[in-house]
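Entry 14. Ran structure prediction on the chain below.
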Amino acid sequence: MSKQFDVLVIGGGPGGYVAAIRAAQLGFKVACCESNAYADPKGEPRLGGTCLNVGCIPSKALLHTSHLFEEAGHGFAAQGISVGTPEIDVPTMIGRKNAIVNQLTGGIKGLFKKNKVTLLNGHGSFVAQGAAGWQIKVGDAIVEATQVIIATGSMARHLPGIPVDNKIICDNAGALDLDAVPKKLVIIGAGVIGLEMGSVWRRLGSEVTILEALPEFLSMADVDVAKEAAKVFVKQGLNIQLGVQIGEAKPSKKGVSIAYTDKDGKAQNLEADRLIVSVGRIPYTNGLNAEAVGLKLDERGRIDVDGQCRTNLQGVWAVGDVVSGPMLAHKAMEEGVMVAELMAGQSGHCNFDTIPWVIYTSPEIAWVGKTEQQLKADGVACKVGKIPFAANGRALGMGDTTGFVKMLSDAKTDRILGVHIIGANASELISEAVVAMEFGAASEDLARICHAHPTLSEVVHEAALACDKRPLHF
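Output, structure tokens:
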């Protein structure tokens, strides 16, 4: 006899486990199936998906360690602190990262028990639609569920002619588990993952070259932010080459040889100890048996959904990286909550216009809403308030005045249309802008809110004042 549930979630990543927990809170009998064991010593399914296991969380752990290492070697002296020449123990760093991952993935299992979510070991595959709902094969068993939420996430995109072994040639997973600091490291792709991993290993002593196919750096960010970031990263020591055409990569005596054509059309070859391929991610629909039940995919292989994450099949939903929109863990979580609440007859909602983006380099980069170039392309007149951290007392006290806050508001209504930050703690500062935009705030609203002094948030306040050409400290 098959197991029966009100809701079955396929995939235990950020979108999946949050959807399962919220559905259980709303009174549904819920199961979540997960098959990926990652590096679990017992071979059990690891919850948390790419984000917790080989993405957001482990990369932030390495970024923090490498930041402390660089501060000890280059920043402490200016503060009057003498510690000698620091050394990095890579196995210890990786071990700390793994311990954090284990704690968080195990914590999700605890949340499942607390909320009475049944964890099933196995990959979910559609069988048929029956009288009681959908029949899904999970491992060797058949599960029946009235509603199904697909949250299978994404996988690293690889390039032809460049075989990834996650030892010498790595994707995002292998980049997190290098056993030593490579003397020379090449990264293909100057996106979020490429810049973050490049920052980690550069700080620890690698000579890092980043090869990017696009002619512009960080084209998805605001143009002013992209220009500032390029200037800062080059000064830090990242060798960023734009407009290149990648050829093939093959093992060599030193490690790996990478052939490419530079922006001027000249053939080039780089020798490196390690290569990281970071050219985006693709939706993961393998094994779903989508064709057998008529589940519709779009032209990019994503599951086709409406604005509320409904698929073309009755009672089947999809969230996260496997559908359209930015591949961000927090976006997937919001979609998971929305779907659970819609299933319960509530007014679930996800505002895709106020989803923040963050790049955890140093300085951090964060933004929400439209960029200035997008507004110009759309013919929207806007006011610009831009204030550097160099004018901020807290930033000066911290010894990090890099970057600025840039606020864009509608020229007629003053409603905030976008906020772009490059600087220390940008990942935290952007939340104020998200809240403001979610409530439809004008720049004047933020300008008239008292901000604690001295704080970095005062730069957001000054940027709001600058939209009306009345900053007080710059």
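DSSP finds 14 helices and 22 strands in the chain. Will compare against last week's run tomorrow.
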